[in-house]
Amino acid sequence: MRNYTANKANNGCKMTGIKTMARKMDSRDVRDRNIALVLEQLVDGESHSRTYLSNVTGLTPATLTSLIRDLAEAGIIEQVGASQSGVEGPRRKAMFALGNHSFPVVVLELRKSEVKLVCQTLRGCTVLDETYQADFRGKNIGDFARFVALRICALLDVLAQQGIDSLPLVGISIPAPVYADLRTIPAAIDFGWDHADVVALIEEQLPQAWYEHVRSRKADAQGCDVAAGLAILRDLKIVLVNDGSAGLWAERHYLQRSNGGISPEDSLNLLYFKTDLGVGGGVVLNNELYCGSKGMAGGLGHMPVANSGRHCLCGRTGCLATVAAPEVMIDDGGLREFASEHGDVAALKELRRLAKLNIEPARSTYDRARDGVKQVLAGAIALLVPDWVIFGGYVIHMMDELFSEHDLATMKVSGVRGMLAGHYRDDAAMPGALLMMRQNLLSNAGRLMHGENLVLRVGSAV
Known about the structure:
This protein is α/β, with parallel strands linked by helices. It is built from 16 helices and 15 strands.
């Protein structure tokens, strides 16, 4: 009987422990959700008082005060002064904004013949903005991985000078499809790269790159800063994002949160089509980026437009990219020398000018690209019926030629509100990728505060 009582007591302790753990988990989940509600109000670098944050989030003043204290201790938010009398009430109130000295927001963007690196604070202040002339087309992808590793190591010094001793996340914007693991690409056609785990290649390079960087600045290879740097790099998460998806996310944010003047309710579903380095795009459904189960959705450049067209490096025949990619149009239009002297953008404008004058081969090249774009877009629009269609790159200049007034009227009847030239034109990938990385950091605020691993997603709000 004594044994039975003891076992019963032990079982009771176990059950109590499980219930306690469940309550803690529930409490943690609720707290993390409350943190997200607060940070969502600050994501654009704005500052607000406790009263304002309490009103818009519905959190009690006591709960909000506790969250603000913990977030401030972690450096995620900072007090940035007090509101002037009458702005948010008759009294001066402490104002809070995202921090400038905690977790940096970092993106490297792979472009045609250069790599751009931007590092910002959580609040959006620029720490570093540099463009490196580096052409990796036709080169080994390992060369790119090593280049990125060296840039990351050099960035640690820049951050240290700003009093920032952490680097939990780095985004890589790349003109290639990205699988759902956010690490691997099936191929980067414009660079001649086959299937590769890009993140693994970069991670392999980081330790040696750090030692080389330390030696290059003549630091003590056995010093504590070496160990500290290796610790930061060991915990660093690197995430790949497709440049088309990043561009779409930037345009969506502009429409809904900046000066686009379109409410989220009127822009829940978006179709993005861009033609700069290659042909690509993306889709937002129900206000979230839709990438499909494998991460490959939205690749409009590889929709077929000609059954007997050119062979595409993706393995198909007659893809839109084989007639409408900028490089293809410049070559087919006989403007390669012109582009070498004046640049691709000028060459595409010259191609359009010559086409309007019925000068060959510019006319047939331009018409073939325009018709292919129209064919792919018409199918995508009929299938998705997006609220808005957004254009980026040179295709902006042919918007008025793609669809007739009758076509546009028919689309409006089906639910399409209209077509827009992208606010960022050719430069949407970087602001979009920065926004994605910032949102990932903020959605992981609770984990960062507890030193836990990040759970990464792209294309979802905080």
